[in-house]
Amino acid sequence: FLTLGLFGLSLMASALVLMAFHGRSLHDVWRFHGQGGTSLFLKAAGAFLLIALVGYAIEAWRMPSSFTLRSDLGAVYWLSLAAGIVVIALQTLGEEMIFRGYLLRVWGAVLSLRLVVVGLLVLGFTLLHTLNADFRIDFAFNFIWFVATEVLYYWLLFRTGSITATWGLHFANNLVSMMLVVTVPGSVPDMGLFIYTDPVLAAGGSRLASPMAYVEMTAGLALIVGLLAWKQSPFYIAPAPLPVLPSPPPVPDVDAPDATPV
Asked: 141 to each of 148, 198, 209, how far by Cα in Å?
């Protein structure tokens, strides 16, 4: 967790230094055309947490033997949990600032096609995580999962014009997978409140050929989108208005007679 925290701080510092080098401010790192604010973070994180935890609750109802509640729930653990939450917040914020706050803006200024820029960033972000042990244990399916969640993040980024909301999604995702419900084999269970033993991975298999895995992934992401886009939802985030571009200067009428006195 110390490594993660330092990693996040280093990414944040890098983003700020690079933006300053390009003559940009913190405002430019944080948002494109939308508004920031705590509510964006809380709504995005809340929607992800709700869907993820409900999904795990259903799985626990189906296969209760796959879940284990950690036994040492003393003060030391809760203090460690609080510290871990801070570290995850720093780590995810650093990644958001460098990828969606800086690289998207800089590469977008060079490459005019948004789809190409986003595709390169999604690929780069996913490849960065292929070094993780949990990624390698089921590489192909995790690659698909990472790309799918990145599509969700960029949809929300372009909807809100701010990395505040995507930070909320990113934070909630890492909080669940690293501290609330840790999946084994693959992840380190030291800080997990619940340990989920994936029966497919434990048997040495892959979820790549499991139709149910794709159903669960698609349904989960679709429900998160629904909670964020449905106006009656408590997690609803309205689209940010597009920036008002300045009007071009009037073009002089070259055919008009010259009224300058001789």
From this structure: 11, 14, 9
